[in-house]
């Protein structure tokens, strides 16, 4: 059979419900920000607690970041 005579097979996609489309769009939109936050947390955890030898719970203390800011921007 040549290409011109070959029967064309078209697959019909099932229509997704609207609620599923919305949920998939939300998941797709949140994928990059969530992965970015996970990467920031992993970097902080490795740098501050593993390399720096500090307790990991101090990553979330505002006093830690004030001290870091003072060290970096002190005149």
From TrEMBL:
The residues that cross the membrane are 20-48
Q: Which InterPro entries match?
A: RNApol_su_b/EpuA
Keywords on record: DNA-directed RNA polymerase, Membrane, Transcription, Transmembrane, Transmembrane helix
Question: GO CC annotations?
Answer: DNA-directed RNA polymerase complex
The answer to whether keyword Membrane applies is yes
Name under which the protein is recorded: DNA-directed RNA polymerase subunit beta
Which source organism?
A: Paenibacillus hexagrammi
